[in-house]
Design brief:
It is a single chain. The protein is mainly beta. The chain has 1 helix and 8 strands; from the N terminus they run H-E-E-E-E-E-E-E-E. The strands form 2 sheets. The protein has a 4-stranded antiparallel beta sheet with strand order 1-2-4-3, with no helix packed on it. Strand 7 and strand 8 form a beta hairpin. The longest helix is centred in the first third of the chain and has 14 residues. It is elongated. The N and C termini lie far apart (145 Å).
């Protein structure tokens, strides 16, 4: 084999093996965008710039529950909220903003806790009002005003309304004061049909 032919064959072998002397000296590891895994060659693609560091999601605290969301414990609620789950009305249960007075609440209504009236939760303004004579009432609605009781308005007890307490017929606009069984001797103003005229 002549010297010129031998040199040409050697040159072809270098190109076939990826050692072309015209290619960049850093070889296939050069470039950017590799994932950062800490084990690549310096300056190479395995540790190039722009890599994405993958973080595990284990151990992250769950997101807190916002006002109005169901809860089992106050630790689940976002800051400023407490968990209320004992109210008769579902509207008052869940994570609720804490308050000590009505001015603490955007609605202007702070409903005090029964076991600690110095603290409470913010609620819709209607919960700081009360039902007067004839107002609908139930465990899902605001309570009747002082001096009123919540009574069924029909025999089937499907609807209830606040009725004014009384001691005599003259206390009522209907001129009908009726003793209510189960109310500890209290009486309430009812419709005139409950006080038929004496024969």
């Amino acid at each position: 084999m002549t010297r010129a032919l031998a040199a040409a064959v050697f040159s072809l072998l270098l190109v076939a093996c990826g050692s072309d002397p015209k290619s960049p000296t850093s070889g296939p590891l050069s470039g950017s965008g590799g994932a950062s895994n800490g084990g690549g060659a310096s300056g190479g693609g395995a540790s190039g710039s722009g890599g994405e560091l993958m973080l595990g999601t284990g151990g992250e605290a769950p997101a807190c529950k916002n006002t109005g969301e169901k809860c089992e414990s106050s630790t689940e609620c976002c800051e400023g909220n407490t968990c209320n789950n004992t109210a008769g009305s579902a509207e008052l249960n869940g994570c609720r903003l804490r308050c000590t007075q009505s001015s603490d609440c955007q609605s202007g209504c702070c409903v005090p806790f029964q076991n600690d009236p110095s603290k409470g939760i913010c609620a819709d303004a209607k919960w700081c009002a009360c039902g007067t004579d004839g107002s609908a009432c139930s465990s899902q609605l605001p309570p009747c005003c002082t001096g009123h009781v919540c009574l069924a308005t029909d025999q089937a007890q499907t609807a209830y309304a606040c009725r004014k307490e009384c001691t005599a017929n003259t206390d009522c606009t209907t001129n009908c004061c009726v003793a209510i069984p189960g109310l500890g001797g209290k009486s309430a103003c009812l419709g005139s049909e409950y006080c038929p005229a004496a024969p």
